[in-house]
Design a protein that fits this description.
alpha/beta, 8-stranded parallel β-barrel, 34 strands
Length: 685
């Protein structure tokens, strides 16, 4: 079996990009069955190509999966539903990894490992969100060092959306929404949470005991179709069987299975089979595009760009290269090697003038711009075309750095200042970079094209601002990406940042109201840096009152930058990245406003040492205790507070640990006078 690989925002087997179709399997009452072949043949017959486990896979399971053409994503069995940071750290997780992978880590059927599944949100608050994220990253780092051929991830859920490990190979999110419009809307958000990497819905299902078998089947059908249509990299139907084992006991009060407890097929099995077999969406008319590449002295770069345009899927677009006064033979190379390309030669006049010349020469309905240091994804125009079908005036997508070949490339890919999109919401952009920007020709000329005053940078910012000021709108295609090569060395990167600063000085003169008195651009939306959304430093997290919001996330205007690429995450690279992160914004500021200053530090929150901590074994849960405290006159905290309830200045945080034997233990943290707390036995906790 070929190894599963990451390919931009998707998965790949060999030369073929695949949409992963998984079904979750186990844990089962009584442990693993003596024979897996019967179940696995039925699973393979649905069209599934993989199974997801919550335990580590014995070799006979992997052998059976291989014989049925199924890949396996296994889990690690360790106590991550308790305060593990206060009791041994990740050592149990490392031992579980050793148990799971030491013998079978190179089995051809084993595709990946989930290091944990849904660390409870209240325990994340208790342990500290950043500390928990770092622990998960440490597990993934250890796994990648020893088994780099496997894919590594954490199975997250919406209540800890901010907990994405920066070094995971893909974002995995367990999502349970019962209305299709809500589910589709959340998938659009998750594309931004995932950053540059693939998005897998690692669980989706519906309980037939409470909702009925027909409604369960209907939901699984539209859920799988939505995942495919909205460009996720895969989806796991939850679960194979109604038979389920959790916390030391068989679960009998829910039925999420595709088969019932007797092994008989439910309607959901047929619905999943039908959805897995569904044809992809029709390809939009990509011949409506004119692709424009502007270049000056790009002989060493432009060949890769034009080769990628030859590999585009769908109808062939018009391709125009504008040679902006090159003296290195760029035009001659294009004429010789790419005779199908229309070449426009100009005297050197700058990037904006070249783009305008390309648009004037274009004959198609939509003009799409990319740069000579980019390589487009084969489905680039297909994805942009789907987005245009919703009526946008312009559309853009992400620009991803290619996998680095050396340490300098890795560091610069993670450094600040790269071209970034700015999102007003999950669908509409405030700005998209010019290396991945498509515009209706009528819109382009209605706003006057690009301003020739911007010769090297800043042109796309000015263009997007003027487009929006004219009442037009920019859509975003999360999978319509291009590979954008960054500068190959630190000196080139710093020169680029100085150039960006000079372009921002021009923008300040033209759009003074869009800059603060300190010279920083004012954006209405969120700036995306390519990294997955995750808590960092003093980030403010929306938890909801008493930490009970179903969907919890980071409140920010700037999303995280890309983490260092795995094999380059080492001390020397981290030191260089730290240096560039310090100096680049200061050089940019010097060029923009004449002041050598960095970004303003975040306003940190005060972390106080608690006055007391308690641990109580209980029969009821956390919510029951909090309700009783509210009945006794305690007041709920706010949506971003790090505590749950308060009374007369005493604040209390409550978390609940869950153990494999089914026992639960309350953890209570007190700031202030602990004597104000009631006797928990007396209130029935």
């Amino acid at each position: 079996m070929e190894r599963l690989m990451v390919d931009g925002r998707f998965f790949r087997l060999g030369d073929e990009r695949v949409f992963l179709q998984l079904i979750t399997y186990g844990p089962l009452p009584g442990g693993w069955p003596e024979d897996f072949e019967g179940d696995f043949k039925r699973i393979a017959a649905t069209g599934a190509d993989a199974i997801r486990l919550y335990q580590h896979a014995p070799r006979r399971l992997l052998d059976a999966a291989k014989s049925c053409g199924l890949r396996v994503f296994q889990g690690l069995e360790w106590p991550h539903a308790c305060d593990f940071l206060g009791n041994g750290g990740i050592a149990p997780g490392l031992r579980a990894m050793e148990d799971a992978c030491i013998e079978n880590g190179h089995h051809p059927a084993l595709a990946g490992v989930f290091v944990a599944n849904e660390v409870p949100a209240d325990l994340v608050r208790w342990m500290g969100a950043e500390r928990v994220r770092e622990a998960l990253e440490a597990l993934i780092h250890s796994g990648k060092e020893r088994w780099p051929h496997l894919l590594w991830a954490y199975a997250n859920y919406p209540s800890t959306e901010y907990l994405e490990p920066g070094n995971a190979d893909f974002t995995a999110m367990n999502v349970y929404l019962e209305r299709e419009p809500d589910f589709r809307a959340y998938l659009r958000r998750l594309h931004h949470v995932a950053g540059d990497r693939p998005l897998m819905v690692s669980e989706f299902g519906l309980d037939s005991m409470r909702n009925g078998e027909e409604r369960q089947a209907e939901a699984l059908g539209w859920g799988i179709r939505a995942c495919r249509e909205l460009g996720t990299a895969g989806v796991a139907a939850y679960a194979w069987s109604d038979r389920w084992w959790n916390a030391g006991a068989e679960v009998k009060d829910w039925s999420f299975g595709l088969i019932d407890r007797q092994g008989e097929a439910k309607p959901a099995l047929g619905a999943v089979t039908e959805a897995f077999a569904a044809d992809p969406e029709p390809v939009p008319e990509t011949s409506a595009f004119s692709v424009i590449v502007c270049c000056r002295d790009g002989r060493e770069r432009i060949g890769r760009c034009l080769e990628s345009l030859r590999m585009l899927n769908g109808p062939e677009p018009e391709v125009i290269v504008v040679d902006d006064g090159s003296t290195d033979g760029t035009g001659e190379l294009v004429e010789t090697r790419f005779p199908e390309v229309r070449l426009v030669r100009l005297e050197a006049g700058g990037l904006s003038a070249a783009r305008n010349a390309g648009a004037a020469a274009a004959s198609r309905e939509i003009v799409a711009f990319t740069d000579d240091d980019c390589e487009v994804d084969p489905d680039w125009l297909i994805e942009l075309g789907h987005c245009f079908e919703s009526g946008w005036d312009a559309v853009g997508g992400p620009n991803l750095p290619p996998p680095p070949s050396n340490a300098f490339e890795a560091v610069i890919a993670s450094a600040p200042g790269a071209a970034s999109h700015v999102m007003l919401d999950d669908l509409e952009a405030e700005h998209v970079p010019g290396c991945n920007l498509a515009v209706r020709r009528t819109t382009y000329f209605a706003i006057g094209g690009f301003d020739p005053a911007f010769r090297t940078a800043g042109d796309d910012v000015d263009f997007c601002w003027r487009l929006r000021d004219a009442g037009m709108r920019i859509g975003f295609a999360p999978n319509g990406f291009v590979w954008h090569h960054r500068r190959p060395c630190a000196s080139g990167y710093l020169r680029q940042q100085i150039g960006y600063g000079k372009a921002e000085a021009l923008l300040m003169r033209k759009h003074p109201r869009r800059f603060s008195p300190s010279g920083d651009a004012i954006w209405k939306g969120v700036i995306y840096g390519g990294g997955p959304v995750r808590v960092e430093g003093e980030a403010v997290i929306y938890h909801g009152s008493m930490g009970m919001a179903g969907y919890q996330g980071v409140i920010t205007r700037m999303q995280p930058l890309r983490p260092l690429f795995g094999r380059f995450d080492r001390p020397a690279c981290r030191l260089l990245l730290k240096l560039l992160t310090w100096i680049a914004p200061r050089l940019r500021s010097q060029a923009r406003i004449g002041r050598f200053r960095g970004p303003l530090p975040p306003q940190g929150t005060l972390t106080e040492t608690p006055d007391a901590e308690l641990a109580i074994y209980v029969s009821g849960g956390r919510e029951s205790v909090l309700r009783k405290l509210l009945d006794l006159g305690w007041e709920a905290g706010g949506p971003t507070d790090g505590w749950d309830v308060q009374k007369d200045g005493t604040r209390v945080l409550v978390a609940c640990e869950h153990f494999d034997d089914g026992a639960s233990r309350l953890r209570i943290r007190v700031w202030g006078d602990g004597s104000r707390l009631p006797d928990f036995d007396s209130i029935g906790a």
